[in-house]
Amino acid sequence: MSNRINYEKVRPDNIKVMFEMEKLLANNTIDKELQELIKIRVSQINGCAFCLNMHTDDTRKIGIDEKRIYLLNAWDDTDIYNDKEKAALELAESVTLISERKVPDTLYDKVRAYYSEEEYTDLIFIIGQINTWNRISISMGNKA
Question: Which of 42, 46, 67, 81 makes the best surface tag, with the fewest CB within 10 Å?
């Protein structure tokens, strides 16, 4: 890994807060497998090789079927994901591309049909967190 700036050294408190958030998110209402799939999908959209590499490895460690990883780019054209997972992945795409898509009421309603208020909020924080990590990694020149 070749960073432009050693941001962990320059601003250790910032990274500490990011890792504290990771601990909170690890113990939320969304199952670990879906969390990892969301992290991979968002990282694909953002083009973050560092995060793609890390989260693909993480999915393998927890035993996710390889097909579920390979088909993430085409999640809406396969039956390997259930409707609940597809709703979460669609939300992840809309939040990641928020300047282009927003989160329309129809999508909110679709997601809320499967997820409680607490779960919806957890999804938003998972999506926001991986978007933040992607932007840090890309901006700082992290390599896979």
Answer: 67
Q: What is the phi/psi pair of residue 53, to 5°?
A: -60, -50
Nearby residues of 62 by Cβ (< 8 Å), 6 or more positions away: 32, 33, 36
**Four-way CATH pick for 7-139: 1.10.10.10, 3.30.450.40, 3.40.50.150, 1.20.1290.10:** 1.20.1290.10
Query: What number of other Cβ atoms are within 10 A of residue 6's Cβ?
Result: 9
Kindly report the pTM of this predicted structure.
Answer: 0.93
Residue-wise burial string across 48-71, b where 16 or more C-beta atoms lie within 10 A, e elsewhere = bebbbebbbeebeeeebeeebbee
| Successive 10-residue mean pLDDT values, the chain, 144 residues | 76 94 94 97 98 95 95 97 99 97 96 99 98 95 85
Q: Is 97 helix (H, G, I), strand (E, B) or coil?
A: coil
